[in-house]
Amino acid sequence: MLLIDERRGRRVALELGVKKISGLLAVLQEAKRKGLILEIKPILDRLISENNFRISVSLYNTVLQFAGE
């Protein structure tokens, strides 16, 4: 498994035959599903405000909706 968010890195990984590629959003969703975290929103908000994490408003809303938040 490879954890990566950058498009170019994902493309190279696919070219090299990496079978499972996940980004941070997928990891957060899986952590919530397994009960490791209660909410995704506060984590995303902190990543955006304190770490310059870039995410479109549309994707942000989709992730939270999918997580039931």
Q: Could you explain the architecture of this structure?
A:
The chain is mostly helical. The protein has a domain at 24-69. 58% of the residues lie in helices and 6% in strands. It is built from four helices and two strands. The chain has helices at residues 7-15, 24-33, 41-51, 57-66, and strands at residues 2-3, 21-22. It has a two-stranded parallel ribbon with strand order 1-2. Helix 1 (7-15) links the parallel strand 1 (2-3) and strand 2. The longest helix is centred in the middle third of the chain and has 11 residues, at 41-51. It is globular, with a radius of gyration of 13 Å.
Architecture blueprint of SSEs:
Elements: E1 2-3, H1 7-15, E2 21-22, H2 24-33, H3 41-51, H4 57-66
Parallel strand pairs: 1-2
